[in-house]
Each structure stands twice: as structure tokens, then as C-alpha cells.
């Protein structure tokens, strides 16, 4: 399954990846879902998220907060108010600090609340995507505020790609707790 190039493919893959992510939780007890990750991070991948995210709740919060970024960016700009995707003072060189801030902000959020938050924000993102047309999503430069890429590219990164990333973490956790 390649990167979506149409609205239909984006919607299909976003729902599919999201559902598969939750399928990873099937058969896990409440304790397993809330347990700290105990798997080793891949030696070939030194990304900060391997040490930042300590459990599934942290992954859900990360997804939820990135949904919020997309929702706010789209709604603000579609209403003819200028907004960058990443809120100041963050930029694409410092977004790791923003991710850390999200993590810190939600350390008192319960697993159940985080799960509901990601489900709700996913549905809100999908509602916005469904209401955009093919050109709005995939024509580069259709909106000047999307820069050199398309709105769809941001949507893919925030949904399909992020859900695939989350599934990878959950798969490792699942393997660890069920072994």
C-alpha cells in the first residue's frame, strides 16, 4: 500500500490504519494497555520518540495533539486567517521540543481519557478531510498557506503515516506483554 494520491485512498488508508492500530490492542488486559513499554528501541532508529513515549497513553496523546495541530491549521486557514502548522515558537527544526511539551502536558491524563481523545480527534480530522475536495487536498499550491506541498500531504502525515508509526510501537509492546 503506497502513499495515498487521491482523496478516496487517503480516507480509506486513514480509517484502515487507525482501525489496525486499535486491533493491536485486542486481547490486551487493562493492565497491559497501561503498562510501561519494556521493549528495546531498534538499534537502527535513534529517533527521540523511542525514549519519549513510555506507554500506549503517550502514543495516543501524541496522535491527538498532532490531530489538533492539523485541525487548528486547517480551520484557521480555511476561514481566511493566517496560521502556521506548528505553533510559535516551534518550527520544523524544533518540533521535537514541541512533542516533548505535549508529553509533559499529559502526564496526568488517564489511559481511558487519552484513548477517547484520540478517537474523537481522529473523527474530527476525518470529517474535515471528507469535506475537502480532491483539488483542495492534492493540488500543490492550491492554497498558498500549504507552502510547497499539498494539504493532503499534511493529512497523510497526521493520519496514515502517524498511525503506522503507532502500530509499530504497539506491536512491539504487544509482543513484549504477551510473551
UniProtKB/TrEMBL annotation:
Protein name stated in the entry: DinB superfamily protein
Originating organism: Halolactibacillus halophilus
Any one Pfam family match given in the protein's UniProt record, by short name: DUF1706
Top-level taxon: Bacteria
Gene3D superfamilies given in the database record: dinb family like domain
